[in-house]
């Protein structure tokens, strides 16, 4: 198959990119591993304070199908259940589809999104211990209850939002806890860091849920956070959030039957004396998100580690060009943010590519760049509170790299 | 938080039956195998080859491969991504002799 | 005072030599630019396949090495995943049968009781083998090992005997005084010793070039496919006869040197090799080669068409023009030794290489004719 642009990932970033490119007459194919397009949009269902009050439901499933329809109407080919297993230079992409085995393309947009970080609490491999993303997908996309009595391990903007969605679906959410500290899990077990992160997220996002945290921490964050932690318990819409308790073990013979809970000090140390057992049949684990970058490594993109963006990501400029000519990135592969930012980035990556092909003017690229900034401000969920600093670090690293490259050339 | 009423079940009632480890399971067209199993109260999909411990859904979107099963003789299909079909045979065991001559 | 020896290279050859030297009460320091088994020893398959080796010096060495492997787990007190499951060379047609029959006769004359069994008997041993296989060789003495695990085990055993493992040390050159090596320069620092042994595989040529010693070792790339975990399907080492036969055929249509080699790891994954290509130090994998290896694997084992690959990798094997490793002292520089160029035999030959090199470095008599492995054999060769 010969195309102008191949897009890896049919999530919000990838589909929006495909629409922008197809509008200008380019032949575009989007591949995705899932059986239907939409990516993480498919699981999203929440009230968006930035939308008009009478119609403020952000229903990702509906948005995904509208975008998909638009793309398909413009002639975009979407290949689902398809994995790219190798990308060779300028560019031959090998895929797992049984009829189309290779795609020859002039340019590539990588919009592969993110994966969840593992949260290896003792007993986490038992049946009934699922990731928070699975909980969201099964609840909102498949309309299936993952369990009747549920606890969450890991307290962050995503897990709080999923817990609320599950409660709304009629699932008994008994509480949210921190993970037991271990070599692999440290910051996520620290009550003080957890609360500060939530507070920062709440300050940046005008979402009423996270304002609850914001209220406690206005002014001098640290001291007030400490005093707040004395209370041990906060409730959001009836869901108890235990910032001073950790799940130390998930128990059960054939599947999850209970969790062991121990008290935590403010600094995240376990109090060995007090132990409680809570009977549940499902545990949702939230370890945070990690950019899914394998495809960028397949094309030999230069990679950089920027924790404020969520981890190791392909080096790219403000217009989403990577270090490999013809390869662009959009969405969570560039750093962990919400669907709105991903969509705006999808457009920016497409325009950046179109500009390089001399099909659009610079003004349009600048405009797309600015709308990413707007989307960031309007995002109801902020996963990494210092994302803007992260973006600045990326900009500096890009300039540094260009400098080095300039000298070599 | 209040939310606009949306129908909880918006899927068409289009029933599909398949076999999972010798049991007939009925799901709704368009559902992945793992979803149909969970709707029927089946959470264990396979057992770990090394320890024998039961395994089920973990990530739900095809990354972790924990939910893999043999589907119509093909091993290691991810049941969270594979849609149910009438008469489909799903098995927890890895039977690789299917592809042999 | 103890003899001090520097070993350069932390692959299976370097760590083996470090272990046998430390057993001989030598004060050993091993310098490795990355980590133990980070190069060729960590990117190969696990076969200790003896039946296919050409009678002569390599076969003699390999047989001794195979004997040592039988007791190596006890000696090193570690699980090396050693298993003597036997080995097969698959035969698909009459031409291959003819070629392999000649090979088997040679091996029998050399004292190896390799036999040819029918396709039926082969399928009895490996039930999922294709019906297109008309016959196969069988030798019960072929074995396998975890190469990376073995290199680490050698390194740990050497450490227990006070050998020092200096990882992330890049050797930049040799310290030579009056025609004798007195140490090396690594990470901008000088280290002194009574002897230095170079075990740097494919990187040997460039290292020794710095002191004007030419070693005709070139990298030969081999690609390997890894499947998902499977139940136990293959209990022995399997090679295909087509590669051996294709070398004798006119109009060889095998540009990537693909010869099937299959084994199953302890965790259940299959390692499917491999190719043989001279492409310099490029260690990328190539989709054409991957697909070609996969195609041949499915021909031999039809069930593989439904099995997922989880990964592919390639390794660089240190090739020498006469397919023999280079072992012994380098005559032009006193105290400088070399043990490199094992190509695909490094794993099989590691224990015996370590033992012999330790004896040579310590000035002991070896009960083995080392002449065929001498670097001198290349002295008059145009490289």
UniProtKB/TrEMBL annotation, chain A:
GO MF annotations in UniProt: oxidoreductase activity
Gene3D superfamilies: FAD/NAD(P)-binding domain
Span of domain FAD/NAD(P)-binding: 4-173, 235-346
Keyword Oxidoreductase (UniProt): yes
InterPro entries: FAD/NAD-bd_sf (IPR036188), FAD/NAD-binding_dom (IPR023753), Metab_Enz_Cyan_OpOx_G3PDH (IPR051691)
Name of the protein in question: Thioredoxin reductase
Keywords from the named record: Oxidoreductase
Pfam families: Pyr_redox_2 (PF07992)
UniProt keyword Oxidoreductase present: yes
Domain of life: Bacteria
Automatic annotation (TrEMBL), chain B:
Endoplasmic reticulum among keywords: no
Keyword Oxidoreductase: yes
GO molecular function term, any single one: oxidoreductase activity
Keywords: Oxidoreductase
The organism's place on the tree of life at top rank: Bacteria
InterPro entries: 2Fe-2S-bd_N (IPR042204), 2Fe-2S_ferredoxin-like_sf (IPR036010)
Listed name of the protein: 2Fe-2S iron-sulfur cluster protein
Provenance organism: Ureibacillus acetophenoni
TrEMBL record, chain C:
Keyword Repeat: no
Entry GO terms, CC: cytoplasm
FAD dependent oxidoreductase domain ranges (all copies): 4-359
Molecular function per GO: oxidoreductase activity
Sequence intervals crossing the membrane: none
Pfam families assigned to the protein according to its UniProt record, in alphabetical order: DAO (PF01266)
Record keyword Oxidoreductase present: yes
Keywords (A to Z) from UniProt: Oxidoreductase
Name this protein carries in UniProt: Glycine/D-amino acid oxidase-like deaminating enzyme
Protein source organism: Ureibacillus acetophenoni
């Amino acid at each position: 198959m010969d195309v102008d642009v191949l897009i890896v990932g049919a999530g919000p970033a990838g589909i929006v990119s495909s629409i922008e490119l197809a509008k200008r007459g380019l032949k575009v194919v989007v591949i995705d591993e899932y059986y239907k397009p939409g990516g993480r949009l498919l699981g999203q269902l929440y009230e968006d304070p930035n939308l008009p009050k009478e119609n403020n439901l952000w229903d990702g499933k509906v948005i995904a199908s509208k975008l998909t329809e638009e793309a398909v109407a413009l002639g975009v080919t979407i290949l689902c259940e398809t994995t790219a297993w190798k990308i060779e230079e300028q560019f031959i992409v090998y895929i797992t589809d049984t009829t189309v085995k290779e795609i020859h393309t002039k340019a590539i947009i990588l919009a592969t999104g993110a994966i969840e970080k593992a949260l290896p609490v003792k007993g986490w491999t038992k049946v009934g211990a699922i990731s928070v993303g699975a909980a969201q997908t099964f609840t909102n996309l498949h309309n299936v209850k993952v369990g009747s009595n549920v606890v969450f391990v890991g307290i962050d903007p995503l897990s709080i939002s999923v817990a609320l969605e599950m409660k709304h679906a009629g699932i008994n959410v008994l509480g949210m806890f921190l993970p037991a500290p271990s070599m692999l899990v440290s910051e996520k077990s620290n009550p003080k860091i957890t609360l500060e992160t939530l507070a920062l997220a709440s300050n940046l996002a005008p979402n009423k849920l996270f304002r609850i945290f914001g209220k406690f921490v206005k002014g001098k964050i640290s001291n007030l956070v400490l005093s707040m932690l004395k209370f041990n318990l906060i409730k959001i819409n009836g869901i108890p959030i235990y910032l001073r308790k950790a799940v130390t073990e998930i128990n059960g013979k054939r599947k999850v039957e209970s969790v062991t809970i121990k008290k935590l000090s403010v600094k995240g140390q376990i109090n060995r004396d007090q132990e409680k057992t809570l009977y549940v049949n499902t545990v949702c684990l939230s370890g945070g998100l990690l950019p899914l970058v394998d495809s960028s490594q397949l094309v030999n993109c230069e990679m950089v580690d920027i924790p404020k963006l969520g981890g190791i990501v392909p080096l790219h400029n403000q217009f989403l060009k990577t270090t490999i000519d013809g390869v662009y990135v959009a969405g969570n592969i560039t750093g962990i943010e919400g669907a709105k930012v991903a969509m705006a980035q999808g457009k920016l990556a497409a325009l950046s590519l179109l500009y390089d092909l001399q099909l659009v003017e610079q003004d349009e690229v600048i405009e797309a760049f600015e709308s990413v900034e707007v989307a960031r401000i309007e995002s109801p969920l902020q996963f990494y509170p210092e994302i803007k600093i992260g973006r600045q670090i990326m900009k500096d690293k890009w300039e540094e790299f260009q400098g080095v490259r300039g000298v070599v050339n | 938080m209040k939310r606009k009423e949306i129908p909880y079940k918006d899927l068409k009632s289009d029933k599909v039956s398949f076999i999972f480890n010798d049991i007939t399971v009925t799901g709704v067209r368009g559902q992945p195998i793992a979803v149909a199993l969970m709707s029927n109260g089946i959470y264990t999909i396979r057992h770990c080859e090394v320890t024998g411990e039961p395994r089920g859904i973990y990530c739900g979107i095809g990354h972790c491969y924990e939910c893999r099963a043999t589907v119509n003789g093909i091993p290691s299909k991810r049941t969270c991504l594979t849609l149910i079909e009438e008469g489909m045979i799903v098995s927890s065991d890895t039977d690789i002799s299917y592809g042999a001559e | 005072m103890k003899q001090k020896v520097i070993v350069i290279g932390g692959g299976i050859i370097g760590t083996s030599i470090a272990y046998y030297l430390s057993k001989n009460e030598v004060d050993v320091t091993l310098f490795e630019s990355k980590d133990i088994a980070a190069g060729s020893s960590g990117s190969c398959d696990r076969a200790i396949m003896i039946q296919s080796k050409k009678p002569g010096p390599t076969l003699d060495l390999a047989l001794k090495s195979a004997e040592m492997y039988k007791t190596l787990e006890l000696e090193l007190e570690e699980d090396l995943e050693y298993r003597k499951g036997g080995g097969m060379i698959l035969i698909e047609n009459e031409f291959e049968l003819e070629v392999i029959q000649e090979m088997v006769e040679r091996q029998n004359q050399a004292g190896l009781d390799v036999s040819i069994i029918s396709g039926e008997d082969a399928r009895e041993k490996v039930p999922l083998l294709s019906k297109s296989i008309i016959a196969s060789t069988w030798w019960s003495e072929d074995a396998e090992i975890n190469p990376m695990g073995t290199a680490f085990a050698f390194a740990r055993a050497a450490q227990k005997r006070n050998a020092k493992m200096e990882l992330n040390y890049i050797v930049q050159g040799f310290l030579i005084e009056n025609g004798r090596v007195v140490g090396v320069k690594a990470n901008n620092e000088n280290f002194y010793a009574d002897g230095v042994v170079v075990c740097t595989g494919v990187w040997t040529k460039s290292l020794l070039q710095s002191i004007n010693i030419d070693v005709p070792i070139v990298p030969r790339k081999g690609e390997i496919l890894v499947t998902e975990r499977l139940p136990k399907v293959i209990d022995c080492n399997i090679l295909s006869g087509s590669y051996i036969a294709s070398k004798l055929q006119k109009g060889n249509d095998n540009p990537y040197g693909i010869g099937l080699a299959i084994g199953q790891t302890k965790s259940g994954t299959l390692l499917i090799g491999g190719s043989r290509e001279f492409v310099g130090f490029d260690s990328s994998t190539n989709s054409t080669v991957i697909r070609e290896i996969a195609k041949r694997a499915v021909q031999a084992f039809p069930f593989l068409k439904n099995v997922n690959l989880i990964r592919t990798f390639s390794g660089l094997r240190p090739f020498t023009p006469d397919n023999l490793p280079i072992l012994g002292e380098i005559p032009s520089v006193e105290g400088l030794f070399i043990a490199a160029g094992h190509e695909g035999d490094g794993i099989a030959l590691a224990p015996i290489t370590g033992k012999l090199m330790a004896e040579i470095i310590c000035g002991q008599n070896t009960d083995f004719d080392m002449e065929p492995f001498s670097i001198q054999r290349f002295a008059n060769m145009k490289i």
